[in-house]
Amino acid sequence: MHMLEMAPGWSLDLDRGPDWLMVRLHCDQKHAWDTPPLAETLWALAQQHFVHRLVVEFDEVPMLHTALIGQLVMLHKRLSVNGGVLRLSGLSEQSRDVLSTARLDGRLPAFENRTEAVLGHAIVNKPR
């Protein structure tokens, strides 16, 4: 895993899994309303790693705002055209509500964590 600076106050950790690229976003509170070049940055990373399946982890991003959602929609379109997948994880309840209200929760599916996002469904804890 290595950290890359994306824009002032925004950075990301990159981790590679089999056929997946995991990206954990970091956001400095005072830059939370700025919009980093997320779509372009993540598309370039996907191309460098020859992967078109991305999980973007938002555990350290307080809120999805309109411009950030726009970046995710652009990235989703680019990945989809190339047979790829974009999944989100670690969104706050408020951010999930924003996606739902914008009717984007189907296009930008959100999961609790990276594992669930890669599997594509919620993990159910089963008794042993």
Characterization of the model:
With 128 residues, this protein is of the alpha/beta class. The chain has one domain: Transcription Regulator spoIIAA (2-Layer Sandwich). 33% of the residues lie in helices and 29% in strands. It contains 4 helices and 6 strands; from the N terminus they run βββαβαβαβα. It has helices spanning 38-48, 66-81, 93-101, 114-119; strands spanning 2-7, 10-17, 20-27, 53-60, 85-89, 110-111. The protein has a 6-stranded mixed beta sheet. A hairpin with a 2-residue loop joins β2 (10-17) and β3 (20-27). α1 packs parallel to α2. The protein starts with a strand and ends in a 9-residue tail after the last helix. The relative contact order is 0.14.
Features:
Transcription Regulator spoIIAA; alpha/beta; 128 residues; 29% strand; six-stranded mixed sheet; 4 helices
Distance between the termini: 33 Å
- Regarding quaternary structure, how should these chains be classified? single chain
Amount of beta strand: 25-35%
| C-alpha-based Rg, rounded | 14 Å
Structural class: alpha/beta
CATH topology: Transcription Regulator spoIIAA
Instruction: Give the fraction of residues assigned to helices.
Output: 25-40%
Provide a compact summary of the structure.
The protein is α/β, with parallel strands linked by helices. It has one domain (2-119): STAS domain (Transcription Regulator spoIIAA), CATH 3.30.750.
